[in-house]
Design a protein that fits this description.
Distance between the termini: 48 Å
Largest sheet: 7 strands, mixed
Strand content: 5-15%
Protein name: HTH cro/C1-type domain-containing protein
Oligomer: single chain
Structural class: alpha/beta
CATH class of the largest domain: Alpha Beta
Organism: Streptomyces cellostaticus
Radius of gyration: 20 Å
Order of helices and strands: HHHHHHEHHEHHEEEEHEH
Helix content: 40-55%
Number of helices: 12
CATH topology of the largest domain: Endonuclease, Chain A
Number of strands: 7
GO molecular function, one term: DNA binding
């Protein structure tokens, strides 16, 4: 459904903000509908199809039937006990983005973590085992959807050398994690760059975040910190500043085959 609506909108050459303006909706409503985070009512579906010039009765009938059958909770509803309201808002936008740009100054970005690495990070005795299991399963589902299922959003990761060398879970866990990074770097819609120590205090060093950018604007910045997570919306200046720093650091980092070679050098230093 969401892909069909996105394609019809693109065919009609109408941006997401234009849809919102012409239907008197908020821009985020259009993004959430195309991202699959909220269902679309039959009334709203008809308004969208009218706007996009979709007149084929069979297509309209099939989409209306699909809409009636799809009024179910979002995919992450099974993980509500570990999904904060801020993170739920982020998840609703993640799959609808055109591009995702992520950096963490100390750890492997969550979308690239192995189960062993994630469990080692969570092994602090501060949460029940069931909660840890739910977090691990949630992360695995996000990875399945973004790394394996879709060619969009395009995923861009900056991985700091500190993350490659920090022993999270011990050498076996780290060898598995580094091999995962190499595999991810070969996925067509993934761009992985390594930020070596030699870059020193590079521009994005203190700005571990995820930026989601959309063809129609209304970009989003997701920031995780000690006190929780914050989804920054309606502040394009903040997103642009982060992306500018991200691009500057990426331009100085190592990418492609060079990044894989860099990871291999680090791998060789982990004892068997």
């Amino acid at each position: 459904m969401r892909l069909a609506l996105r394609n019809y909108r693109n065919d009609a050459r109408i941006s997401q903000p234009e849809v919102a303006e012409r239907l008197s909706w908020s821009p985020s409503k259009v993004i959430r509908i195309e991202g699959g985070s909220v269902g679309v009512s039959v009334t709203d579906l008809r308004a969208l199809l009218d706007l996009y010039g979709v007149v084929d009765e069979r297509i309209r009938r099939d989409l209306e039937q699909a809409t009636r059958e799809s009024r179910r909770p979002p995919w992450w509803s099974a993980f509500r006990e570990v999904v904060s309201p801020q993170f739920a808002a982020y998840l609703g936008l993640e799959s609808a983005a055109g591009e995702l740009s992520a950096y963490d100054p100390a750890l492997v970005p969550g979308l690239l973590q192995t189960e062993g690495y994630t469990r080692a990070l969570l092994a602090d005795g501060q949460r029940p085992a069931a909660r840890t299991d739910a977090i691990v399963r949630l992360r695995a589902e996000r990875q399945r959807r973004l790394l394996r299922e879709a060619a969009e959003p395009r995923l861009r990761f900056l991985v700091d050398e500190a993350a490659l060398r920090r022993w999270v879970g011990g050498p076996d866990t780290m060898r598995e994690q580094l091999e995962r990074l190499k595999s991810a770097a070969r996925i067509p819609h993934v761009e992985l760059s390594v930020v070596p120590f030699t870059l020193g205090a590079h521009p994005v060093l203190r700005n571990g975040s995820i930026a989601l950018t959309f063809r129609g604007g209304d970009d989003v910045l997701f920031v995780e910190g000690p006190s929780g997570a914050l989804t920054i919306r309606d502040d394009q200046e903040a997103v642009d500043e982060y992306l500018a720093r991200f691009e500057e650091s990426r331009g100085k980092a190592v990418s492609g085959d060079e990044a894989i070679g860099f990871i291999d050098e680090v791998l060789a230093q982990y004892p068997s």
